[in-house]
Amino acid sequence: MTVVLSLLTQVLHIALMLAAAPTLAGAVSWLEARLSGRAGPPILAPWHDLVRLSRKTPISEDNVSAAASLAPAFALGATLSAAALVPSFTLGMALAPLADVLVIVSLLAAARAAAALAALDSGAARPGLAAQIASARAVLAEPAMMLAVVALGLIDGSFNLDLIVGQQREGLLLPAAASAVALTAMLALLFAEASGDGAALDQMQAGTGLALSRITVWLRRLVWIDLLGSLFLPVGMATADSAPLALLTGLAAWAVKLAAIAGGLSVVLTRLGKVPGHSLPDLLGVAALLALLATIMVLAGSGTA
Amino acid sequence: MSDPILLFVTIDAAALVLLGLCAAIVPLSAGTFLATLASGLGMLLCLPPLLLRAPASTLDLPVGPPGLALHLAFDPLAAFVLVIVFFAGTAVTAFQSAASPPCTPAELRETALCLAGTALTLLAADGVSLAIGLAVMTAAISPQGHRPQHGLLTPILLLAAICLLTPAGFAPRFDTIRTAPAEPTRSAIAAALGVAGVVILAGPRPAARSRFRDTLAAGMLIPAGLYVLLRVIADLAAGATQTGTGIVLLLAGGAIAVAEAWRAADHPDIDGSTACLTRRQAGLAVAGIGLALIARAADLPGAESFALAATLLAALGSGIAGVATTLATRAIGVSAGTIRLSRLGGLVHAMPMTAAALAGGLLGLAALPPGVGFAVLWLLFEALLSAPRTGGLLFQLPLALTGAAFALSAALATAAAVRLIGVALLGRPRTPQGAGAREARSPSRGILLALASLSGVAGVLPGLFLWLLAEPAIHGLTGAAPGARIGLALLLPSALAPSYLAFPVLALLALTTGAAIVVPRWVRKGSKPAGPWLDGLHPPVGLPFGEPAAQSAGHGFLPILPRLPLPRVPTLPALPRLRPPSATGAMWLLIAASSALLLLLACLA
Questions:
Q1: Which residues neighbour B309 within 8 Å (Cβ) at sequence distance 6 or greater?
Q2: Is residue B441 part of a domain?
Q3: pTM for this model (two decimals)
Q4: Which of B176, B300, B277, B157 is nearest to B229 (CA)?
Q5: SS3 of A157, please?
């Protein structure tokens, strides 16, 4: 029975992540516009975009390889795999044994690499430039992300995300100061992710390829938010064998967490403005240093708690 | 069982020496065939004792200096590295036999002698045999017409290290050393000498080199260098507490991994870039040895076995993925007429199989799941997780810095792989010669694809490879049952703990990617062909496919480092250039120096 429940919750989790990604992107855009005093686009505008793009006849360029058509699908597949491993409303899903934080971070890196390869395959100048910039930023962002989650794994003694979240839920993750520094690093990374021009890599795509690229970007942002929520706000999360009421509570708590983090992100983006492209490496560098500091604090002992 | 096998492997190595010496007079096709046969036979000979967990065996050869007869041994560690080396030798010699243009007798001589020297190094059970094997290796890889300048330092340094570990009055045999462990100071000096020797052997990439130097470095020099480090530091000097040596190796390995990955993402040539990625694997392996020493000093066999598994898997990755990428870059260089990244492009259309092999090899060298490079990274982080937490900030700082180095190196390696694939293989050709590149010949293609496929299998089933090939060596080095239970398709820290399951991760990735491919096609079928100009612009005259030079040329894939406000160093006056003294002058200088030394000693006395 537990196996069936864990499978069901896993399928529900993936479906919810896929449904929430465009909705959350639309909500953030709407909220940003409202906070700026504009009417803003409808919250469901990303869904309309996806439907519109999927109705277009695909264009097969004769100068590109199969990589151009397969890379957006691979990028979405890798991001969706990462999304499937990050718990949302419940722990103990069917794929929980695979939910290694290093695997999750590396799947996101693989998705980014695939998007860059698709841009380079177009053979045009501007997507190539976008791929270079994305790669240079990833050189700073990926180690920062990896170190932040490794710091949390070192506290817990395991790199499995389910175990880390479980420990965090029980309030066992010490030293708390190191957790706070890791949280700051991850918030800086989320801010950089939201400020970056994620759509620059898909300049040469159209139709379904563009739709896949868009949903990949939205899903990646949702994975970040979900990771933050589950690691640092594991409130109300159920387990796979919980009663239906506990699962419903978990769903409600997840929705509230998403809304809170997305609202906070919108407020920050509106009040502070997006980080300019030339300053993003500085922000990413600071995030990497914070993540390193968190790792040092964890390894140096619990005296900083 | 392994006694006759040791004899046959020794005969095999001797036959390779003979073949290397006679390379100039043997017909080239026969020579490459014989070299392939000898390498393949060597690999097949080493596999059964490894798979059947046969005990170590020894062989005394009645040759050598008086009282220092050569002594050979065949133990699981040597057998594991021998399998890698002979496998790489088989691939290289088979590729040479099918290469177009054909390889030269000098290249055949280099490969055969390097393989024989490496085999002798791995079989050596005393300092003299080890030094002879290393001398043969270094002499073989020196380019024709160039004297081995620093290379011969390697055997001398290693011999000195072994002699330092040997008890007074005994021959420098490994079994003697194991019975009487050396004191910590001598062990530390021996470790430093060993590291220096290995760095000279496998570190620098000489400007004057043969076409297969990078391949030999990936398949033979790096695995052999790691073996020598493990043998000298982790095996022969095992009696001493080596925390300091471990920290030094840890930091050095992390620094090498970052520096080489950075160079790989910035190198103007594809062969240089792939060589740097291979040396990055060596850096990770060295860091793994350091972690193993630290864990051993703290009596943590689980962490030690993780670190050793990472080291051996890195050697395996270098031997498979490194050889695949270096051979593929060579095939590309021959066909496209250049190895300069900014002059390549669009090779996926002209050489699809070679491009696929290069991409597969790069996946193994980068740190992306489910490649073998990612399995190495995961094992290293697991070893870091299990490392001792004592010693305060001063002791833990190197561990934290090394963790940061692992993460940074992984991101840089991914950037380097994206740059190589995106600029050289994808996009459009930049030069007419690049556009006219043709696929490598059928046997060469098959070899490249087989290597890339095997690299992929090693990435998906790292536990299987470690269980089959490396577990006896890890058991022999840790002296206890492995703390890490290694299953068929997964790497487990323990029976109950969650782990890295490469095969299920691949299945999940395939499922989600398949869905992302199928669903859009199901929603909308059929596509409209179009040219490259989608934005209404007209192509320039004479360039119907646009301006290929406007594509990314491989620059700017790395962040710009901030300029530190360092004080300006005052310019020093130019020193007079000293000419080397003549023979007579050198003799007088030697006499004067000796007299000064004697005077100094007399004064001190």
A1: B379, B466, B470, B474, B482, B484, B486, B491
A2: yes
A3: 0.90
A4: B157
A5: coil
Q: What is the domain count for chain B?
A: 1
How far is A171 from B414, CA to CA, in rounded Å?
36
A157 touches chain B (CB under 8 A): yes
Q: Regarding beta strands B528-530 and A59-61, do their DSSP bridges make them parallel or antiparallel, or are they unpaired?
A: parallel
Identify which of A70, A47, A26 has the alpha carbon closest to the alpha carbon of residue A211: A47
DSSP classification of residue B173: B
Cβ of A139 and B499 within 8 Å? no
C-alpha separations of A198 from A193, A195, A215, B545, B581 in Å: 8, 9, 11, 27, 65
Diameter of chain A measured on Cα atoms: 62
* Percent of chain A predicted with pLDDT > 70: 95
SS3 per residue for B501-556: EHHHHHHHHHHHHHHHHHHHHHHCCCCEEECCCCCCCCCCCCCCCCCHHHCCCCCC
Q: How far is A33 from chain B (nearest CA, A)?
A: 30
Residue B274 has pLDDT above 50, yes or no: yes
| Beta-carbon separation of B422 and A116 below 8 A | yes
Using DSSP, state whether B68 is helix, strand or coil. Answer: coil
Rounded-to-integer distance, Cα B149 and Cα A298, Å = 47
The contacts of residue A117 (CB under 8 Å, 6+ apart) are A67, A71, A131, B418, B421, B422, B426
What is the total residue count of chain B? 605
Give me the number of domains chain A comprises.
Answer: 1
Contact A55, A191 (CB under 8 A): no
B chain contacts of residue A98, beta-carbon cutoff 8 Å: 501, 504-505, 508
Q: Is residue B595 situated within a structural domain?
A: no
| Chain B nearest CA to A95, separation (Å) | 9
3-state secondary structure of A160: strand
For residue B434, being part of any structural domain is answered with: yes
Residue B495: pLDDT above 60?
Answer: no
Angle at A47 between CA A45 and CA A50, to 5 degrees: 115
B352-376 pLDDT tens trace: 999 999 999 999 999 898 899 999 9
Cα angle for residues A151, B286, B391 (degrees, 5° grid): 50
Is pLDDT above 60 for B561?
yes
Segments forming the whole domain that contains residue B501? 242-507
Residues B39-55: pLDDT tens digits?
Answer: 999 999 999 988 888 88
- For B74, list phi and psi in degrees, rounded to 5: -130, 100
Looking at the domain assignment, is residue B302 inside a domain?
yes
Distance of CA B398 to the CA centre of its chain: 24
Type of residue numbered B279: R
| Helix, strand, coil share (%) of chain A residues, nearest 5 | 75, 5, 20
Residue pair B277/B358 in contact by the 8 Å Cβ criterion: no
Nearest-angstrom CA–CA distance, A204 and B435: 23
Q: Map tokens 């990926």 to a residue.
A: A142
Q: Which residues of B touch A102 (CB under 8 A)?
A: 374, 377-378, 381, 500
Contact B403 A295 (CB under 8 A): yes
State which residues form the domain around A31.
2-304
B364 contacts B371 by C-beta, under 8 angstroms: yes
- Three-class SS state of B390: coil
pLDDT at A303 over 50: no
Q: Is the peptide bond before B370 cis (omega within 30 degrees of 0)?
A: yes
Task: State the virtual CA torsion across B41, B46, B51, B56 in degrees, nearest 10.
Answer: 160
